[in-house]
């Protein structure tokens, strides 16, 4: 039996009105890849914060190699050999790779930081992970995947025996994810325990060997061999009931209706050329492609965030020259549910009330710009109930919510503004199984009500579930279009063939529902 590096014994953490952890147990063994799973709000983030010294437990014990430890800060956790790579990068863009890797324990000479001496230990850490990254390169010049690997090298430099990876592949392409998995395997070979937090069960089953499942602050499955469970078992444990994939009810689309959004021969400063597509009322048009295909940049050009260099945009039949998302909303009725909810979707340090009503202050305002508190509250309460947002009150800060509820708050502000066209970019990244299904039903119902939706998703199963038509992009071009028959096997084969311009077996993609 492998050595137990860290153990959580009956951990309890209570916040005002919420028992976030209620006697959670966890055993992390050397050389294992341990999946920590659960829906949003199950307690995963709180447990990670306890393990990394951000929160002190209200009861229970943390044990390292059998001895109880007390972590009063992340620095204490680092000294105890515990590292974490968060979903949001934690690097300093203006520093070099070497400076970031050695930041917590920089080499010094005569009391001053020795910058030249940083290169050797940084190069060693990168080499141990098999990474070909220049230690002198600025972090701001690296890709998202490279930055994540630098964070892992940073943990290696501080001699982390336990490394927590929080949604590590959320922003990575399949090829980048495979590189990350190779690094994870190298870490386990040297005796590190990697804790893998993810909602992507296909990845969990391909990488992890041990699993703990949290539900409502309880560990319903604790440090068990993953090989003894199926994906359906795990989903049932996560949601507390048998999981069934429910087909969306029929929703007719009037293909003869005039387009709500029409792009004709559009070119942009980002490199798009001759992009033409239509989105009709009540229609969900999907944009699918690999990372770097130019999907998000295309919608940003429509919203005035990227420069249009040619072609025409028409919204509800009228030529549109849009200079900002604000103009897109107020003049053309376009809402934009962004992929980056923490930086662009919600104001984390502001109350939920303000987040929901920010788009309609002008509509609610009376003389001299006064916004009646009652009307603002009624608007927010209606949307909280409609979307099933789990909150303690409208005064709660959005940053205190789970990722799925933050995304619902982000969506609610566009619904409050009565948008007539909705752009949805990666709506369920980092969202648990039940919340994802609820989002799918919500998007489907919005389209049923006549709202035209332009959907971007890297989740092929999500695309096949929701889209009426799938427009396939690669290298900032439209490569083809597929009418969706909602058969995953057929659709995946057609779409991937278009991307690669060659025959590809549908079985070459893993269906996360199987």
From TrEMBL:
Which domain of life, per UniProt? Bacteria
Q: Has keyword Transport? A: yes
Q: Where is the signal peptide?
A: none
Does the record bear Disulfide bond in its keywords? no
Q: Which InterPro entries match?
A: AAA+_ATPase, ABC_carbohydrate_import_ATPase, ABC_transporter-like_ATP-bd, ABC_transporter-like_CS, P-loop_NTPase
GO terms, molecular function? ATP binding
Domain ABC transporter: from-to ranges? 6-241, 250-500
Name the keywords, alphabetized: ATP-binding, Nucleotide-binding, Repeat, Transport
Q: What is this protein called?
A: Sugar ABC transporter ATP-binding protein
In which organism is this protein found?
Answer: Streptomyces laculatispora
């Amino acid at each position: 039996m492998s050595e137990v590096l860290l153990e959580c014994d009956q951990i309890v953490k209570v916040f005002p009105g919420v028992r976030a952890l209620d006697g959670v147990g966890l055993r992390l063994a050397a050389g294992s890849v341990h999946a920590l799973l659960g829906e949003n709000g199950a307690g995963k983030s709180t447990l990670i914060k306890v393990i990394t010294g951000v929160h002190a437990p209200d009861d229970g014990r943390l044990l390292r190699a059998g001895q109880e430890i007390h972590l009063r800060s992340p620095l204490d956790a680092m000294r105890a050999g515990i590292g974490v790579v968060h979903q949001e990068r934690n690097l300093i863009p203006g520093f070099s790779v070497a400076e970031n890797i050695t930041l917590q324990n920089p080499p010094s000479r005569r009391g001053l930081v020795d910058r030249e001496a940083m290169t050797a230990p940084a190069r060693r850490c990168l080499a141990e992970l098999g990474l070909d990254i220049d230690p002198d390169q600025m972090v701001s010049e690296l890709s998202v995947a490279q930055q994540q690997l630098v964070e892992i090298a940073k943990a290696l430099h501080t001699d982390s025996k336990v490394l927590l990876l929080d949604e590590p592949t959320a922003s990575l392409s399949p090829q980048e994810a495979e590189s990350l998995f190779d690094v994870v395997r190298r870490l386990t070979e040297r005796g590190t325990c990697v804790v893998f937090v993810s909602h992507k069960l296909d990845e969990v089953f391909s990488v992890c060997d041990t699993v703990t499942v949290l539900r409502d602050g309880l560990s319903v499955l604790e440090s068990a061999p993953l090989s003894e469970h199926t994906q359906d078992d795990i989903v049932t444990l996560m949601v507390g009931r048998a999981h069934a994939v429910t087909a969306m009810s029929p929703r007719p689309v009037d293909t003869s209706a005039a387009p709500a959004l029409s792009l004709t021969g559009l070119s942009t400063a980002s490199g798009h050329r001759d992009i033409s597509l239509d989105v009709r009322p009540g229609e969900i048009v999907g944009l699918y492609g690999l990372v770097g295909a130019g999907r998000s940049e295309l919608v940003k050009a429509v919203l005035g965030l990227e420069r249009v260099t040619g072609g025409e945009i028409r919204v509800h039949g009228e030529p549109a020259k849009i200079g900002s998302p604000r103009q897109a909303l107020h003049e053309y009725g376009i809402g934009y549910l962004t992929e980056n909810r923490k930086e662009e979707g919600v104001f984390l340090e502001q109350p939920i009330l303000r987040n929901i009503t920010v788009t309609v202050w002008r509509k609610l305002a009376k003389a001299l710009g006064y916004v009646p508190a009652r009307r603002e509250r009624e608007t927010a309460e209606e949307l909280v109930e409609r979307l099933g947002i789990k909150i303690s009150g409208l005064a709660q800060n959005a940053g205190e919510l789970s990722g799925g509820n933050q995304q619902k708050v982000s969506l609610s502000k566009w619904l409050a503004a009565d948008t007539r066209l909705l752009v949805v970019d990666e709506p369920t990244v980092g969202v648990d199984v039940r919340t994802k299904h609820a989002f799918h039903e919500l998007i489907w119902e919005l389209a049923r009500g006549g709202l035209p939706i332009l959907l971007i998703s890297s989740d092929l199963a999500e695309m096949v579930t929701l889209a009426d038509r799938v427009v396939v992009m690669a290298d900032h071009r439209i490569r083809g279009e597929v009418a969706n028959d909602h058969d995953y096997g057929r659709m995946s084969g057609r779409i991937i063939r278009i991307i690669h311009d060659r025959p590809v077996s549908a079985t070459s993609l893993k269906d996360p529902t199987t």
